[in-house]
Amino acid sequence: MIAAGPSTIPAPEPLRYERAQGYGVRLLACDGTEDGRIVEELGDAATADHVAVLVPGNDNYLGNYFNQKRATRPRANGETLLRTMREVAPEERVAVVVWVGYRTPRGFGEAVSRRPAIEGAPDLVRLTRFLPGSARVTLVGHSYGTVVCGLALGRGRVSDCVALGSPGMGTRSREELGFTGNLWAARGPNDWIRFFPRGHVGEAGHGPSPTRRGYGARVFETGDIPGHCSYYRSGSESVRNIARIAVGRYEEVTPVTVPRPRRPREVRVAEAVAS
């Protein structure tokens, strides 16, 4: 297993995308440093009709990418999503790209800054243009990964973007994303991200939550998933909805049901007089 400590890399060099074998898997990019970046292809993106690109959040890097003790590691999430996409659309050709293609923040302190997302977004844009032009590309960001997606959307070749447990997408509004495709968002019922500060000053803060009413995202149901890191839980309504979006089955996506406001109780004349 590769071990790595806190990141000390100031600004990573641009990734070079090409298909290769490494670490026993199919790679699209890898900078080879323990503290660095890795992009894995699950399925055959070159011939796929639909490609989902997973963009994870904090504390993910080459040094812990293959650690099987991490139940929520991006690679396992990608495998779960690929399997679910095949179940939802068995007749379609699908693939997943697990994109740990930026220097992810280490801990909460670094996650307040947009600097890692600013540095990583251009490489995500380049990935969307490296993938075949015939495929529908869906970005699926989780946590800080949604900030990277938000800063890449206006320049990338993307049909849909899914924001999971987002601290904000790096802009002050949906309009600033510069994205005309479909924007989706979800937040689990017990996700602590709801308490993340929503400021946007200089390079600090990530703006409003895309699940906020009026933001302009289509908010979908996750089911009763626990915590902040269970959006890809196998069999959950969350991962099924992500898969439905990724293969274009929009009509099958279950929206969040908003309780109807209570109608004022009608007061009879006799009751009014008695009061």
Shape: globular
Structural class: alpha/beta
Helicity range: 10-25%
pLDDT < 50 stretches:
1-8, 259-275
In the sheet with the most strands, the strands line up as 1-2-3-5-4-6-7-8-9
End-to-end CA span: 75 Å
Average pLDDT confidence is 90
Whole-number total of structural domains:
1
Strand content: 15-25%
CATH superfamily: Alpha/Beta hydrolase fold, catalytic domain
Give a count of the beta strands, DSSP E runs of length 2 or more: 9
**Secondary-structure element series:** EEEEHHEHHEHEEEHH
Which fold name fills CATH's third level, the topology? Rossmann fold
Counting DSSP H or I runs of 4 or more residues, the number of helices is 7
Description of the molecule:
This protein has one domain: Alpha/Beta hydrolase fold, catalytic domain (Rossmann fold), CATH 3.40.50. It contains 7 helices and 9 strands. Strands 1-2-3-5-4-6-7-8-9 form a 9-stranded mixed sheet, with helices on both faces. Helix 2 packs across helix 6 and helix 4 packs across helix 5. The protein starts with 19 loop residues before the first strand and ends with a helix. The N terminus and C terminus are likely disordered.
Which helices and strands occur, and which strands form pairs?
Blueprint: E1 20-22, E2 25-30, E3 38-43, E4 50-55, H1 62-65, H2 74-88, E5 94-100, H3 107-111, H4 115-130, E6 136-142, H5 145-152, E7 160-164, E8 182-186, E9 218-219, H6 237-246, H7 269-274
Parallel strand pairs: 4-5, 4-6, 6-7, 7-8, 8-9
Antiparallel strand pairs: 1-2, 2-3, 3-5
Helix pairs in contact: 2-6, 4-5
